[in-house]
């Protein structure tokens, strides 16, 4: 087939325009998110604890899969009384996410069972005494750093078991984190900080659906004027 049959191949202006501030990704509902985490928690086998920890990290913090598999154990720590994970985010920017109790419980259970971490004191203050050599936060059976493909396959398997009719991916969980946090009342600017978005318009892509309409200023004004 020649390029003449494909105008976009010779004229960039013919390519479809993509709005960077809109997304067609669909996140999970609250019930689906809980079902996915529940299925992960009920997983069996030698890496069951890892499964629960991975889903918890992706779902509650919204970190990218590249950030998850690229993170190291010595990036865990405390900041102002909060359990945190520090890592290098997209664009080589340093970033930090808070690890809420549902995540720390699962993550601690996973790390406690890691033979390669036996004797380590976890977590340690970031950069503080007791930090040891950099080791991957999530590893394979052989102790090597887990790759993104393994995380994708894990999520697909869990979604199938949970009978969730969504083509699931790590980004779907990032989207889910943002939309459910917004539905729960989190401010857009706080979600922006957690996800590490430089542009607030990127975060607003996740603020859609019925919950956004429920917060329409028209309702607020109607109540004020009634």
UniProtKB/TrEMBL annotation:
The keyword Transcription does not apply. Residues 1-30 are annotated as: Disordered. SUPFAM superfamilies: DNA breaking-rejoining enzymes. Signal peptide: none annotated. Residues 23-220 form the Tyr recombinase domain. Keywords: DNA recombination. GO terms for biological process: DNA integration; DNA recombination. One of its GO terms (molecular function) is DNA binding. Pfam families: Phage_integrase. This is Tyr recombinase domain-containing protein.
């Amino acid at each position: 087939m020649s390029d003449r049959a494909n105008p976009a191949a010779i004229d960039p202006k013919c390519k479809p325009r993509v709005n960077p501030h809109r997304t067609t990704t669909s996140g999970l509902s609250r019930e689906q998110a809980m079902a996915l985490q529940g299925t992960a928690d009920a997983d069996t086998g030698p890496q069951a604890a890892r499964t629960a920890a991975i889903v918890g990290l992706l779902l509650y913090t919204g970190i990218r899969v590249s950030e998850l598999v690229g993170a190291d154990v010595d990036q865990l720590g405390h900041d102002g009384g909060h359990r945190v994970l520090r890592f290098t985010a997209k664009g080589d920017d340093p970033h930090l996410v808070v690890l809420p109790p549902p995540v720390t419980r699962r993550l601690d259970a996973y790390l406690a069972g890691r033979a390669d971490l036996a004797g380590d004191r976890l977590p340690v203050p970031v950069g503080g005494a007791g930090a040891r050599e950099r080791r991957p936060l999530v590893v394979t059976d052989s102790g090597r750093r887990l790759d993104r493909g393994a995380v994708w396959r894990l999520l697909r398997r869990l979604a199938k078991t949970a009978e969730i009719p969504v083509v699931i991916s790590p980004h779907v969980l990032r989207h889910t984190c943002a939309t459910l946090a917004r539905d729960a009342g989190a401010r857009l600017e706080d979600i922006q900080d957690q996800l590490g978005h430089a542009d607030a318009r990127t975060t607003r892509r996740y603020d859609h659906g019925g919950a956004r309409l429920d917060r329409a200023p028209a309702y607020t004004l109607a109540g004020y004027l009634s």
